[in-house]
Write a structure and sequence with these properties.
Glutaredoxin, 3-stranded mixed sheet, Glutathione S-transferase Yfyf (Class Pi), Chain A, domain 2, about 5% strand, about 230 residues, mainly alpha, 9 helices, 3 strands, about 60% helix, globular
Length: about 230
């Protein structure tokens, strides 16, 4: 048994892990289990019932946190490094990953992707809480995007080279885009340019191309002109 990754492809946490694995050139098989509809299957490998779950090998213990999977990938294949070796850049990249998987996840994930993708597509509801989505778009997202712009500054990437910091933040913005969120490129030009650079990275481009073949992405594009 080789490396196995469990999780539905459009999950931003799963996306982050897939981009890391693809960037590292680590071969893996994807088992696209959806925790909302196939919870019992997820519970067999992760008592928390969440994805992603990485199984590094037949006798290896599952890794159940996306940040830990990224760290495992960096230890397994050291180059190219996606967690910087320089102590200051490393601390910066990991801090930004926490920002992405905390504050950005709440707004671009739970309030946009969750309400517009997860609720209608996976739970079969007519729609999610659109008032929550609009509040996220108009009130909560702008200060977060200001923070992203400040983190990028005049650099190509957040921690000098393409790293987990970029992967994590871009993964949430990709999910929000699928949910119909449109980045105001005139207001945040540096963010738009940085996001394009992230999506052009071979590992990210490969994951996006794979996502585009899924039914949920076709559904989202038809519904939100994403």
């Amino acid at each position: 048994m080789g490396v196995a990754l469990i999780g539905y492809p459009v999950s931003p946490f799963v996306r982050k892990v897939r981009v890391a694995l693809e960037t590292k050139g680590i071969s893996y098989t994807l088992d696209p289990i959806v925790p909302y509809t196939e919870r019992e299957k997820v519970l067999t490998v992760n008592p928390a019932g969440t994805v992603p779950v990485l199984i590094p090998g037949e006798s290896a213990a599952p890794i159940t946190e996306s940040a830990d999977v990224v760290a495992w990938s960096d230890q397994t294949v050291p180059s190219p490094a996606i967690i910087p070796k320089d102590p200051q850049l490393r601390a910066r990249a990991l801090d930004v990953q926490r920002f992405a998987d905390g504050q950005m996840a709440q707004v671009f994930g739970g309030m946009m992707f969750g309400q517009r993708i997860v609720v209608p597509y996976y739970f079969g509801k007519a729609q999610g809480k659109e008032d929550m989505v609009q509040n996220a778009i108009t009130q909560l997202a702008p200060p977060l995007l200001d923070t992203v712009a400040n983190l990028i500054g005049d650099e190509s990437f957040v921690a000098r080279d393409f790293s987990v910091a970029d992967i994590a933040m871009a993964s949430w913005l990709r999910g929000a885009r699928l949910a119909g969120f449109q980045l105001d490129e005139a207001r945040w030009p540096m963010v738009a340019q940085w996001l394009g650079r992230c999506f052009d990275q071979p590992g990210f481009a490969s994951v996006i191309a794979s996502e585009e073949k899924t039914e949920v992405v076709r559904w989202a594009r038809a519904r939100y002109a994403a």
